[in-house]
Amino acid sequence: FRPVVLPKGQTRELEATFFIPDAPPSGDLAAPTTVWLRNTLRARRGGREVYAADEPTTMMPAYQYFFLVLAADPDRYAYLKRLDSIVPPLVDEGNLAEPTMHYRVLLAPSDRRVPVPSQPLAWTPIAYVLWDGLRPNLLTPDQQQALLDWLHWGGQVIVSGPTSLDSLRGSFLEPYLPALATEAVRLQPADFDPLNQFWSLANSRTKIRTALSVAANKTLVGVRLQPHPQAVPLPSTGDLVWERRVGAGRIVVTAFTLSDRPVVNWGSFDSFFNACLLRRPARVFRLSPEAEPEAQWAAFPGAGPMRDGRFVSRLRYFTHDAVPAVPAEKPVPGVATPGPAPGAASLPLHAAESGQSQVAAWSDTSPVSEAARQTLREAAGISIPEAGFVFRVLVVYLLVLVPVNWVVFRLLGRVEWAWLAAPVIAIAGAVVVVRLAQLDIGFARSRTEVAVLELQAGYPSAHLTRYTAVYASLSTAYDFAFEDDSALAMPFPHQVPYAPGLREPINSVSLRRDQQITLNGFQVASNSTGLVHSEQMLDLGGSVQLTGQESSAWAVKNGTRLSLEDVGVLSNQAPGQWELAWVGSLAAARTTALEFRPVETADAYLANASEQGRQNLRRLLELACRDRSQQAGDVRLVAWTAQPLPGLSIRPQASQESTRTLVLIHLRRGALPPPQPDRNLKAELVAEPATFSDREKWEDEPP
Q: In whole angstroms, what is the distance from residue 58 CA to residue 422 CA?
């Protein structure tokens, strides 16, 4: 639900967030599935239905994502829909109606409101944004913040330089750009020689190099780039292409326009686009058994990895995408230990497995969700006072009731009043006992929460995932109210796959977007526990970052309001080579130096963790240490906090609350592997290469 004001005679564009459930498997990896969304407009007074419509939506395959074009003239990028990087040639069994498509290209209109989400967690289906000349102020402040959050968690922005860099100067993106434009220049044919020497592939049949050719009497409009100190030039591009890491994401900028005809018509443009701009592994083109050209990853042959979303998008959230690893065993003398799969170090993840895999999606079945579910199953409920507590309270009560009571009134000379004070003391004692035990007489409620707070170094906004268990001794309807507009919430199943009990009632909940985001009507039966999964972006009022130039002089600075416990910093020097700097406690607004020591595995953190941390967050701490997404050069801080995190209030309030939060901070990212061109050209496999006129190359197919 969301409120809307409709002025008479005016058209309004509304943004709403829908939850799309997992569709039943169709048996076909890429077969499209239709989901119907019902939109209903109701009058605020009385709830009268004013308008209703059912709209079909096609679910994308798990490996498919959006490629968003934000350009002043988006039609100039219609050619993207024909690139093999976008629609890889892949022979599908079953002759599907549509080809395998890694990206759906969205040419966003820019004449009015830009149709991109203002909800940051709704950016998860977007893998890339290509920016060319769009005025940044066309995006609302919420859309700008959502884009920045997406960028820091693995989104990638491609900036087509000449006109874009001027328009982005002074914008929300300027602090993260890899380079700024100093002056406009005319790019001569010789300026593209480094590109041609490395990226232009030769046709093995014709022995002709598919070079980027610019007529001798013509030039291309470009810019001279002034790189940022944290930016690096892409190899063999003649300083025409620079990139910069931004959290888990990156921004790449070109000194030339990506829609210029010589660039688009370059025979090796798709190889350059795939490796340098998309930053994906090299491909090889082969003939399928049906004698059709087919693309495969050069390091991982076969059709399966081509349908793996980990190669298509770099967007990652720990609670969605953590990949648990089996704890390493000590090598046995005389037994060879197998090494990593060939080329695995150059992949966005250790992706030797085949088959479909999606990333970044909301998940109630991820390893983190399952670990939180098991933790809540053990911890949720009402804590019954131990026998020692009852004995101590009884002793104190009897002391106050008899000797203390008598002594006080004996000193006052009114011993007979001690009998009148006895009932008052008894009632007060009962209230104190209930308060100490955190139990309401005849009605008890408790809240147990396990959360994961993920941060990127130097960025104040964090991704917060809460798994909340609420217990009630009597049937209760709970409301979850969130302070931030980025919040999303859903009931969390007790088990996966979820199957309702024979007599279990089915209750409806509603997610309302008004002055607050609220999940209303979450029903918990008597003497039972209900689970809720919620996520939001949380502003911590500061950031955590790694200071110092060399690892021997590194220090970690906590600029947030959180005090952290069991702080350990894990550094992945190389595959199988780990270092650990143990900090212990790190208070808010404090800086501490790091002293690393070599350890056999990342599990060394668990050996140093306190008993309290291992008891309450053991499963989550193990996942944070053993997550296989860590690459060589990554530095990760693992900690936890017992501080209740702001942003969520639950009504009715529980008398007993327990909160534990895993804190995961990515302090440093390892360098990306050097991009590599494709092994060959698809044109080598085609007997008569298709030719397109300029009009066909530049114009999109009819709608």
A: 73
Q: What residue type is assigned to position 676 of the chain?
A: Q
Residues 466 and 534 sit within 8 Å (Cβ to Cβ): yes
Q: Give the pLDDT confidence score for residue 340 in this predicted structure.
A: 33
CA 333 remoteness from chain centre: 41
For residue 694, what are its two tokens? 């300029």
- Going by C-alpha positions, the residue among 253, 230, 247 that lies closest to residue 314 is 247
Tokens linked to 8? 């008479």
Which contacts qualify for 691-697: CB closer than 8 Å, 24 or more apart? 694/261, 697/79, 697/264, 697/265
- pLDDT score recorded for residue 24: 54
CA distances from 654 to 449, 529, 614 (A): 12, 13, 26
Neighbouring CB atoms inside 10 A of 578's CB total 22
Contact present, 88 and 60 (Cβ < 8 Å): no
β-pair partners for 620 = none
Q: Which of 269, 160, 263, 260 is nearest to 213 (CA)?
A: 263
Which of 471, 463, 425, 501 shows the shortest CA–CA distance to 650?
A: 471
Residue type at position 643: Q
The pair of structure tokens assigned to 55 is 């709209």
Report residue 457: phi and psi, to 5°.
Answer: -55, 130
Identify the CA nearest to 243 among candidates 307, 321, 314.
Answer: 314
Residue-by-residue DSSP string for 50-69: EEEEEEEEEEPPTT-EEEEE
Let me know: does 213 contact 262? Beta carbons within 8 Å.
yes
- Determine which helix (DSSP H) or strand (DSSP E) holds 394, and give its type and residue range: helix 387-399
Helix (H, G, I), strand (E, B) or coil at 623: helix
Full-model pTM: 0.86
DSSP string, 422-462: HHHHHHHHHHHHHHHHT--TT--EEEEEEEEEEEETT-SEE
Q: What pLDDT, in 10s, does the model give residues 397-451?
A: 676 667 776 677 777 777 777 777 777 777 777 766 655 554 444 457 889 999 9
What is the predicted pLDDT for the residue at 353?
40
CB 102 within 8 A of CB 88: yes
C-alpha span between 101 and 88 (Å, rounded): 6
User: How far, in Å, CA of 487 to CA of 121, rounded?
Assistant: 8
Distance CA 459, CA 155 (A): 15
Q: How far apart are the first and last CA of the chain?
A: 33
Nearest to 668 by CA among 566, 541, 551, 564: 551
Residues of the chain with pLDDT under 50: 27, 29-30, 94-97, 328-355, 382-384, 438-442, 688-703
**HSE-up of residue 542 (Cα within 13 Å, Cβ side):** 12
The DSSP code sequence of 9-51 is: T-----------PPPPP-S-TT--EEEEEEEEEE-TTTT-EEE
pLDDT value of residue 443: 53
Burial zone of 311 (CB within 10 Å; 0-12 exposed, 13-18 middle, 19+ buried): buried
Q: What is the pLDDT of residue 109?
A: 86
